[in-house]
Specification:
Organism: Congregibacter variabilis
CATH superfamily: P-loop containing nucleotide triphosphate hydrolases
Shape: elongated
Pfam families: TK
CATH topology: Rossmann fold
Keywords: ATP-binding, Cytoplasm, DNA synthesis, Kinase, Metal-binding, Nucleotide-binding, Transferase, Zinc
EC number: 2.7.1.21
CATH architecture: 3-Layer(aba) Sandwich
Radius of gyration: 17 Å
Structural class: alpha/beta
Number of helices: 5
Distance between the termini: 48 Å
Protein name: Thymidine kinase
Length: about 190
Protein backbone atom coordinates (compact mmCIF):
# COMPACT_ATOMS: atom_id res chain seq x y z
CA UNK A 1 0.00 0.00 0.00
CA UNK A 2 1.36 3.42 -0.96
CA UNK A 3 1.60 5.94 1.87
CA UNK A 4 1.73 9.68 2.34
CA UNK A 5 4.82 10.66 4.34
CA UNK A 6 5.45 14.05 5.91
CA UNK A 7 9.06 14.81 6.84
CA UNK A 8 9.05 18.04 8.84
CA UNK A 9 11.52 20.20 10.71
CA UNK A 10 12.63 23.75 11.33
CA UNK A 11 15.00 25.52 8.94
CA UNK A 12 18.40 24.06 8.02
CA UNK A 13 17.71 20.47 9.06
CA UNK A 14 18.43 18.97 5.63
CA UNK A 15 14.93 18.48 4.25
CA UNK A 16 15.90 19.24 0.64
CA UNK A 17 19.06 17.13 0.96
CA UNK A 18 16.98 14.20 2.20
CA UNK A 19 14.45 14.67 -0.62
CA UNK A 20 17.23 14.72 -3.24
CA UNK A 21 18.84 11.62 -1.71
CA UNK A 22 15.50 9.78 -1.80
CA UNK A 23 15.00 10.68 -5.47
CA UNK A 24 18.54 9.55 -6.25
CA UNK A 25 17.95 6.22 -4.51
CA UNK A 26 14.90 5.57 -6.72
CA UNK A 27 16.78 6.58 -9.89
CA UNK A 28 19.73 4.36 -8.96
CA UNK A 29 17.36 1.39 -9.06
CA UNK A 30 15.90 2.34 -12.44
CA UNK A 31 12.75 3.86 -10.94
CA UNK A 32 11.15 7.20 -11.78
CA UNK A 33 10.22 10.06 -9.49
CA UNK A 34 8.45 13.35 -9.90
CA UNK A 35 9.81 16.22 -7.83
CA UNK A 36 7.41 19.10 -7.16
CA UNK A 37 8.42 22.51 -5.79
CA UNK A 38 6.41 25.69 -5.16
CA UNK A 39 6.75 28.41 -7.78
CA UNK A 40 7.22 31.08 -5.12
CA UNK A 41 10.51 29.57 -3.90
CA UNK A 42 12.88 30.76 -6.61
CA UNK A 43 16.01 31.26 -4.48
CA UNK A 44 17.96 28.88 -6.74
CA UNK A 45 15.90 29.41 -9.89
CA UNK A 46 12.33 28.46 -10.70
CA UNK A 47 11.71 24.74 -11.02
CA UNK A 48 14.76 23.71 -9.04
CA UNK A 49 15.25 22.03 -5.67
CA UNK A 50 18.68 22.86 -4.27
CA UNK A 51 20.23 21.92 -0.98
CA UNK A 52 22.45 24.18 1.11
CA UNK A 53 25.25 21.66 0.55
CA UNK A 54 25.15 22.30 -3.19
CA UNK A 55 23.25 19.40 -4.75
CA UNK A 56 20.10 19.98 -6.78
CA UNK A 57 17.56 18.61 -9.24
CA UNK A 58 14.96 19.93 -11.62
CA UNK A 59 11.40 20.06 -10.33
CA UNK A 60 7.92 20.63 -11.69
CA UNK A 61 6.58 23.83 -10.15
CA UNK A 62 3.15 24.32 -8.60
CA UNK A 63 1.23 27.26 -7.16
CA UNK A 64 -1.80 27.47 -4.87
CA UNK A 65 -4.19 27.10 -7.81
CA UNK A 66 -2.48 24.03 -9.31
CA UNK A 67 -4.38 20.77 -9.62
CA UNK A 68 -1.73 18.56 -8.03
CA UNK A 69 -3.64 15.36 -8.79
CA UNK A 70 -3.84 16.27 -12.50
CA UNK A 71 -0.13 17.20 -12.62
CA UNK A 72 0.81 13.83 -11.16
CA UNK A 73 -1.63 11.92 -13.40
CA UNK A 74 -0.22 13.63 -16.50
CA UNK A 75 3.36 12.90 -15.46
CA UNK A 76 2.47 9.27 -14.72
CA UNK A 77 0.94 8.90 -18.20
CA UNK A 78 4.20 10.08 -19.76
CA UNK A 79 6.43 7.94 -17.54
CA UNK A 80 5.26 5.48 -14.87
CA UNK A 81 6.04 7.06 -11.52
CA UNK A 82 7.38 5.10 -8.59
CA UNK A 83 7.36 8.01 -6.13
CA UNK A 84 6.34 11.67 -5.86
CA UNK A 85 8.50 14.02 -3.78
CA UNK A 86 7.44 17.50 -2.68
CA UNK A 87 9.79 20.21 -1.45
CA UNK A 88 8.54 23.08 0.74
CA UNK A 89 5.28 21.18 1.34
CA UNK A 90 4.14 23.78 3.88
CA UNK A 91 3.00 25.86 0.88
CA UNK A 92 0.43 23.29 -0.23
CA UNK A 93 -3.25 24.05 0.22
CA UNK A 94 -5.72 21.84 2.10
CA UNK A 95 -7.12 20.63 -1.25
CA UNK A 96 -3.64 19.82 -2.57
CA UNK A 97 -2.83 17.76 0.52
CA UNK A 98 -6.12 15.90 0.03
CA UNK A 99 -5.04 15.24 -3.58
CA UNK A 100 -1.78 13.72 -2.37
CA UNK A 101 -3.81 11.22 -0.35
CA UNK A 102 -5.70 10.36 -3.54
CA UNK A 103 -2.39 9.76 -5.33
CA UNK A 104 -1.48 7.20 -2.66
CA UNK A 105 -4.91 5.60 -2.39
CA UNK A 106 -6.08 5.61 -6.02
CA UNK A 107 -2.84 5.58 -8.01
CA UNK A 108 -0.87 3.57 -5.45
CA UNK A 109 2.13 5.88 -5.70
CA UNK A 110 3.95 6.81 -2.48
CA UNK A 111 4.29 10.54 -1.75
CA UNK A 112 7.14 11.98 0.32
CA UNK A 113 6.45 15.57 1.40
CA UNK A 114 9.13 17.71 3.07
CA UNK A 115 8.43 21.00 4.81
CA UNK A 116 8.35 23.29 7.77
CA UNK A 117 5.83 22.66 10.53
CA UNK A 118 5.48 26.27 11.70
CA UNK A 119 6.22 29.81 10.57
CA UNK A 120 8.34 32.50 12.28
CA UNK A 121 5.51 33.22 14.76
CA UNK A 122 5.04 29.59 15.76
CA UNK A 123 1.84 29.31 13.72
CA UNK A 124 1.19 26.27 11.48
CA UNK A 125 1.30 26.59 7.71
CA UNK A 126 -1.85 25.38 5.90
CA UNK A 127 -0.06 22.57 4.09
CA UNK A 128 1.76 21.41 7.21
CA UNK A 129 -1.41 21.44 9.31
CA UNK A 130 -3.18 19.06 6.93
CA UNK A 131 -0.12 16.90 6.34
CA UNK A 132 0.23 16.47 10.11
CA UNK A 133 -3.45 15.50 10.24
CA UNK A 134 -3.68 13.25 7.17
CA UNK A 135 -0.24 11.73 6.49
CA UNK A 136 0.19 8.02 7.11
CA UNK A 137 3.69 8.51 8.45
CA UNK A 138 5.24 11.52 10.21
CA UNK A 139 8.99 11.89 10.53
CA UNK A 140 10.81 14.72 12.22
CA UNK A 141 14.17 15.69 10.74
CA UNK A 142 16.16 17.15 13.58
CA UNK A 143 18.47 20.14 13.74
CA UNK A 144 19.86 22.01 16.71
CA UNK A 145 19.55 25.37 18.39
CA UNK A 146 22.67 27.38 19.26
CA UNK A 147 22.37 25.92 22.80
CA UNK A 148 22.63 22.34 21.51
CA UNK A 149 18.99 21.37 22.16
CA UNK A 150 16.66 20.23 19.38
CA UNK A 151 15.43 23.19 17.32
CA UNK A 152 11.69 23.08 16.69
CA UNK A 153 11.00 26.76 15.98
CA UNK A 154 12.30 29.46 13.66
CA UNK A 155 12.56 33.24 13.94
CA UNK A 156 12.73 35.74 11.10
CA UNK A 157 15.32 38.49 11.21
CA UNK A 158 15.55 41.79 9.36
CA UNK A 159 18.67 43.02 7.55
CA UNK A 160 20.14 44.24 10.86
CA UNK A 161 19.64 40.89 12.63
CA UNK A 162 16.69 42.08 14.73
CA UNK A 163 13.84 39.61 15.28
CA UNK A 164 10.70 40.31 13.23
CA UNK A 165 7.42 39.55 15.02
CA UNK A 166 4.86 40.53 12.41
CA UNK A 167 4.41 40.57 8.66
CA UNK A 168 3.40 38.17 5.93
CA UNK A 169 3.52 34.49 6.82
CA UNK A 170 5.47 33.70 3.66
CA UNK A 171 8.71 35.50 2.98
CA UNK A 172 11.26 33.41 1.11
CA UNK A 173 14.74 33.35 2.58
CA UNK A 174 17.47 31.20 4.01
CA UNK A 175 20.18 31.63 6.61
CA UNK A 176 20.16 35.36 5.89
CA UNK A 177 16.58 35.69 7.20
CA UNK A 178 15.80 32.75 9.46
CA UNK A 179 17.35 31.13 12.54
CA UNK A 180 16.28 27.78 14.03
CA UNK A 181 15.82 27.70 17.80
CA UNK A 182 14.59 25.42 20.56
CA UNK A 183 11.21 26.38 22.01
CA UNK A 184 12.78 28.00 25.09
CA UNK A 185 15.02 30.33 23.09
CA UNK A 186 12.24 31.04 20.59
CA UNK A 187 9.98 32.18 23.44
CA UNK A 188 12.73 34.27 25.05
CA UNK A 189 13.67 36.01 21.80
CA UNK A 190 10.28 36.28 20.10
CA UNK A 191 8.39 37.62 23.09
CA UNK A 192 11.18 40.01 24.04
CA UNK A 193 11.30 41.58 20.53
Amino acid sequence: MAKLYFHYSSMNAGKSTTLLQSSYNYAERGMHTLILAPALDDRFGSGRVTSRIGIGADAHIFNREADIFRIICDANEQQKLDCVLIDEAQFLTKEQVFSLGRVCDEMRIPVLAYGLRTDFRGEPFEGSKYLLAWADNLKEIKTICHCGKKATMVVRQDADGSVVTDGAQVEIGGNDRYVSLCRRHFNEIFHRA
